[in-house]
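thought: fold this chain, then report.
action: predict
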Amino acid sequence: MTESDITEYHPFIGSEDEDEHFVLEDGEVDVRAHSADKASELHTHDETHIIFVRTGEMLWEVDGEEFHAEAGDTIVTPAETEHKFEVIGGEPANTACLIAPARSADDRGPSGTHEITKPDEV
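observation:
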């Protein structure tokens, strides 16, 4: 029997308060810190997005269906499917998003272009 490799584990995702973006051969990983006042407009992507909620609470709408998501939950937005999100609960929400297939070189980068600041409550 061979001895187990006990090499120390080194995560490639940094602290929870930084945005990071990794381009892989066949996909991308986009790590985002969404402040409590953020939401997105209804939009679509050419790629499938699998969003892992790391901290906080979010309200998602995917293809007309609403989902409450919190740390540990996963949201899937298939390609060409309308979706949007809103950070709820007053605390930031941190996500890791797997994007597949990888976008073209012209479209790569953080996926926050649909993010907006929510209007103040009336």
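thought: worth noting. Strands lie at 20-23, 28-34, 38-40, 48-55, 57-62, 65-70, 74-77, 83-88, 93-100, 115-117.
final: tokens above.
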